[in-house]
Design a protein that fits this description.
With 163 residues, the protein is mostly helical. It is 80% helix and 0% strand.
Length: 163
């Protein structure tokens, strides 16, 4: 059993345990006292006295081991590069729509399908941005600029798609 509390803390626990035990015995000695509460005070006081003598707290040891295990598990499993990229890709595809498409078995057109789906998500994002800008402004020139930007983005993606 390895010490896990300081000598100061041990002394405080010893003093607190002695006081709790004394209160529990006094509670048990009264005729009108609650026997269950007195017994609880005596048991808690005895545990605190033992912690103070041995400078070991089982509750603190349990919490420390669980925290160390949780931190080690988190760093090992969740903070490697692949997991971060997978989580980022999952979040991105959920937010902007499916970036992947169902591939046709063995057909050469599956490549065009995946680029079309990716470009449609870009077009969708561009149209959403254009819509937000046009809704947020009262200025006609800004509305026209947003509309032109959406058309340009859609045109450049369709140009890439045809290549």
């Amino acid at each position: 059993m390895e010490e896990n509390i300081s000598e100061k803390s041990g002394f405080v626990r010893l003093a607190l345990g002695t006081g709790l035990t004394a209160c529990g015995i006094a509670h048990l000695a009264k005729e009108s006292g609650n026997r269950g509460l007195g017994a609880l005070f005596v048991a808690a006081g005895a545990m605190k006295v033992a912690e103070g003598i041995f400078l070991y707290c089982p509750t603190k040891a349990l919490i420390n081991s669980n925290v160390k295990q949780a931190v080690a598990t988190t760093f090992d499993e969740y903070l490697d590069g692949d997991s971060i990229m997978n989580a980022y890709n999952d979040f991105y595809t959920e937010k902007w729509g499916g970036g992947t498409s169902s591939n046709n078995s063995g057909s050469g057109s599956s490549n065009n399908n995946s680029s079309h789906t990716g470009s449609s998500s870009v077009e969708k994002a561009a149209s959403e941005v254009g819509q937000i800008v046009s809704n947020a402004t009262q200025n006609d020139s800004l509305k026209n600029a947003a509309t032109q930007a959406v058309k340009t983005a859609a045109g450049s993606n369709s140009g890439k798609q045809n290549k």
